UniProtKB/TrEMBL annotation:
Record bears the keyword Membrane: no
Domain ACT: 263-337, 343-409
Role description: Catalyzes the phosphorylation of the beta-carboxyl group of aspartic acid with ATP to yield 4-phospho-L-aspartate, which is involved in the branched biosynthetic pathway leading to the biosynthesis of amino acids threonine, isoleucine and methionine.
GO BP annotations listed: diaminopimelate biosynthetic process; homoserine biosynthetic process; lysine biosynthetic process via diaminopimelate; threonine biosynthetic process
Superkingdom of this protein's organism: Bacteria
GO terms assigned for molecular function: aspartate kinase activity; ATP binding
Keyword flag Transferase: yes
EC number: 2.7.2.4
The name this protein goes by in its record: Aspartokinase
Record's catalysed reaction(s): L-aspartate + ATP = 4-phospho-L-aspartate + ADP
CDD domains: AAK_AKii-LysC-BS (cd04261), ACT_AK-LysC-DapG-like_2 (cd04923), ACT_AKii-LysC-BS-like_1 (cd04913)
Length: 409
């Protein structure tokens, strides 16, 4: 007898039929003799609807009150899921994030899990209850409800799997697994049988919406194999694990992120410490910076460009504008009509021609590159937003990723 954690996304619990389908999957594991924890997201578009309701009342509400509001979406889901399991004749209890012992820091709207007190969970599992837990939420040291950011239910599931030393963690979603690109953009994208934590982490961070990036970080840290699979069929999914294949794939996937903006700090004095000054100001505001490009100094000044998420753009501009005299820059400009397109692959590290192939694909498609960022297993480019989907298709074709079969080879 083992412990199984299953997570169901918003589309997987969007209506009565889907809730019962998820409930039967959970019961199927329970009947095998396993202890079962079910983590659920808010139904369908509930979170977006709650955000709209908030805007009707206050266009700029505090993040604390937004967390209080948004956490109710998952509370509805856990109650309905528990009612479905109850209706099917099985013992069940629903728990909010705080009832399940999920303790977080106080970064409202994007909190991180600090620890999980699993005593209540263990007690309920020992009673042979199926335990349904609200994803996406926890409680901080002030006893305030916090949320973990979009996609945070994945992180809840993996964190619970780690705390309970679960035998497996299954992420049920509206796709069959992890693909070489978003099938909505590239219809002939291939499903991967398996992918490494590192590759999945890069894809999740770079815009692939299959898994929350922090959930992959946690899974890697505690060596928890994840299975990403569809809640609508019984197809085999994609296993995310520490892959040790001798023949690593050259490129495993292409990701696209349109939730991005480019900021340029113009005419910065060309002396040591200026970059530190700029980015430490942003770090204090908890603003993540991605691609960074610094121009060659000229006339004793330089320009520093970087990207942030669109949701952080206003705050970034406010912080920099307020400190313009300290930074000693002439101007700050921005563009929010850009997109980041990236390729990821563990096999890239030993193949120097990968970047050239990617750039050739973009050249052939008539797409201009604004910024470039590379690491051992990824290459990202910043391009015009209108070219994003064309770029993904061009790169996917160039690397012949459609020829990968379901074995990921």
């Amino acid at each position: 007898m083992g412990i199984v954690v299953q997570k169901y996304g918003g589309t997987s619990v969007a209506d009565k039929e889907r809730i019962f389908r998820a409930a039967r999957r959970a019961i199927s594991e329970y009947e095998k003799g396993n202890k079962v924890v079910v983590v659920v997201s808010a139904q369908g578009d509930t979170t977006d609807e709650l955000i709209e309701k908030a805007k009707e009342i206050n266009e700029n509400p505090s993040k604390r009150e937004m967390d209080m509001l948004l956490s109710t979406g998952e509370q509805i889901s856990i109650a309905l899921m528990a009612m479905a399991i109850e209706k099917l004749g099985y013992p069940v209890i629903s728990l909010t994030g705080w009832q399940a012992g999920i303790k977080t820091d106080s970064h409202y709207s994007n909190a991180r899990i600090i620890e999980i007190d699993s005593e209540r969970l263990q007690r309920e599992l020992d009673k042979r209850n199926i335990v349904v837990v609200a994803g996406f939420q926890g409680i901080n040291k002030y006893d305030d409800i916090t949320t973990l950011g979009r996609g945070g239910s994945d992180t809840t599931a993996v964190a619970l799997a780690a705390a309970l030393k679960a035998d497996k963690c299954e992420i049920y979603t509206d796709v069959d697994g992890v693909y070489t690109a978003d099938p909505r953009i590239v219809p002939n994208a291939s499903k991967l049988k398996e992918i490494s934590y590192d590759e999945m982490l890069e894809l999740a961070t770079l815009g692939a919406k299959v898994l929350h990036n922090r959930s992959v970080e946690l899974a890697k840290k505690y060596n928890i194999p994840l299975v990403v699979r569809s809640s609508f069929n019984d197809n085999e999914g994609t296993i995310v694990k520490e892959v040790n294949s001798v023949e690593k794939l050259l490129v495993s996937g292409v990701a696209c992120d349109k939730d991005i903006a480019r900021v340029a700090v113009i005419g910065v004095e060309n002396v040591p410490g200026k970059a530190f000054q700029i980015f430490s100001l942003l770090a204090k505001e908890n603003i993540n910076v991605d691609i960074i490009l610094q121009s060659i100094g000229r006339e004793k000044t330089k320009d520093i460009s970087f990207t942030v998420s669109k949701s952080n753009l206003k705050q970034t501009l406010d912080v920099l504008t307020k400190n313009l005299h300290i930074i000693g820059a002439k101007d700050i400009t921005y563009a929010d009509n850009v997109a980041k397109v990236s390729i990821v692959g563990a096999g890239m590290v030993n193949n120097p021609g990968v970047a050239a192939m990617m750039f050739e694909a973009l050249y052939d498609a008539g797409i201009n590159i604004e910024m470039i960022s590379t690491s051992e297993i990824k290459i990202s480019v910043l391009i015009d937003e209108k070219d994003a989907e064309k770029a993904v298709r061009a790169i996917h074709d160039k690397f012949k990723l459609h020829l990968l079969n379901s074995n990921g080879k």
